[in-house]
Design a protein that fits this description.
The protein is α+β, with helices and mostly antiparallel strands and 75 residues long. The protein is 13% helix and 25% strand.
């Protein structure tokens, strides 16, 4: 199974999170939708048979393993 990254929006900014985008490691979109919560994003990823990764930091780098974690519900 491939990993799908749950990216907080807007990217690279501090302040309130407006939603979450879903992307593969190469930056291509997993879904065009913007999800309002991490829980909804996780549900969509698992429903399609992929493995979700949640951002642990606000400004993310997909190559840095320390920036990502598996959600408890996806294990």
């Amino acid at each position: 199974m491939m990993d799908v990254y749950i990216e907080p929006l807007p990217r690279g900014q501090w302040g309130p999170i407006d939603g979450y985008a879903l992307e593969f490691a190469d930056g291509s979109k997993f879904a065009d939708n913007i999800f309002r919560s991490e829980r909804l994003a996780i549900s969509e990823i698992v429903l399609r048979g992929y493995k979700p990764l949640l951002a642990k930091v606000r400004i993310t780098d997909k190559q840095a393993n320390a920036h990502w974690q598996r959600p408890e519900t996806a294990r």
